[in-house]
Amino acid sequence: MAGDGIGPEVTTQAVKVLRAVLPEAETVEAPVGLAGIDARGVPLPDESLALARNCDAILFGAVGGPGEEALPRDKRPGTSLLLLREALQLYANFRPAFLFPELVGASSFKPEVVEGVDLVILRELTGDIYFGQPRGIETDASGQRYGVNTMRYTESEIERVAHAAFRAARQRRGKVCSVDKANVLETMQLWREVLIRVGAEYPDVELTHLFVDAAAMMLMRTPKRFDVIVTGNMFGDILSDAAAMLTGSIGMLPSASLGEGRTSVGQMGLYEPIHGSAPDIAGRDIANPLAAILSFAMLLRHSLGMGDKAKRVEHAVRKVLAQGYRTQDIFQPGKTMVGTAAMGDAVVQAL
Ligand code: NAD
User: Fold this and answer.
1) Per-residue pLDDT tens for 35-67?
2) How far apart are CA 222 and CA 241, in angstroms?
3) Measured between alpha carbons, how far is 202 from 221 in angstroms, rounded to an integer?
4) In the prediction, which pLDDT does 263 show?
5) Which residues are catalytic?
């Protein structure tokens, strides 16, 4: 599902890599976002959803473009992602933020702050204020308009993402930091209660809590203290973009959205770069395809049970960075500037 804007450009590079490491893979393409609207009049055509349900994994580009605000909400390109997440119950969105040592100078942070950053933000994806009812823009008795959205989480929604966080921490450095706003919001008070209860089942994992405002500050000041950060949909949305900047560029960071669905060897999932469709640079062969390629590596690991091939792809990315290849967003003087397609070719070459 390549989508719109730079989506097809970066996904094409990830598919090149797929062909190189997994030539036997069967792939199908399905339009989503503005491409879905062009093809079938809706952002997520039924045919696209049916194809997605039949696959072990989805490689997603990005959706959206200029003028989308004017469309009714159910016709907006972003709706395709929300519907896919809901339909496939992809509630756990893993967004690793790690800094390749070769890119230390590309971050806007001081090297000593970001060198060695290796954290994962686990964002709950199917609940919270983005889905809660009631929502809308209404008019009150005095004729004044007001907007309303509802922050809502059930205990079971919090429990399942909490388990996902503790399981992920066991595969890493054994630390979970839960981010909430329990001092002000009842929904978040429940969030914290459930995290503490579930955490008791994982005595080997250290659980800490931070209010989201403090977490934002700590993430910028001492990012190396974090291992797994688990948080709700809205806070995760914001914090993960901030975390992206620790690592130099939004064009470097992959993500995986996982749920209860299983493949024969792993979890059914949707894999996408965390960036959007970047209409400002679309069609110019300058977008960084590494986030899409690294998303494919996550796909290999989590949905296809091919951790060894995932590592090969990640090493190939590291190698092209070491060779000095840089797209514009991560360029530093003295390095070799390449376009989107050339970067994809370089990764295939390194493989
Ligand atoms: P964006 O992530 O598309 O772009 C933000 C900035 O980062 C832009 O300056 C862009 O040029 C740059 N950038 C993004 N990806 C890059 C890459 N791979 N290489 C180099 N530079 C890159 O966010 P935005 O500008 O807020 O949104 C643009 C469109 O994308 C909107 O229509 C929005 O709705 C949509 N969007 C889609 C998704 C998604 O599909 N998951 C996520 C976020 C935004």
Assistant:
1) 999 999 999 999 999 999 999 999 999 999 998
2) 16
3) 28
4) 82
5) 130, 181, 213, 237, 241
pLDDT at 248 over 80: no
Q: With a threshold of 0.85, does the pTM exceed it? A: yes
Question: CA 46, CA 79: separation in Å to the nearest integer?
Answer: 13
141 CB-contact burial (10 Å; exposed 0-12 / middle 13-18 / buried 19+): exposed
The length of the chain, given as a count of residues: 351
Instruction: Please give the distance, rounded to the nearest whole angstrom, from the Cα atom of residue 189 to the centre of ligand 1.
Output: 33
| Average model confidence (pLDDT) across the chain | 94
Distance, CA 244 to ligand 1 centroid (Å)?
12
* Helix axis angle, 212-221 to 233-246, nearest 10°: 10
Instruction: State the DSSP string of 237-283.
Output: HHHHHHHHHHTS-GGG-EEEEEEEEE-SSSEEEEEEESS---TTTTT
Q: Which CATH class is domain 1-93+253-351?
A: alpha beta
Could you state, in order of their start, the residue ranges of all structural domains in the chain? 1-93+253-351, 108-127+153-247
Distance CA 250, CA 255 (A): 11
Instruction: State pLDDT tens for residues 177-199.
Output: 999 999 999 999 999 999 999 99
Domain 108-127+153-247, what fold?
Answer: Rossmann fold (3.40.50)
Regarding the beta carbon of 78 and ligand 1, being less than 6 Å apart is answered yes
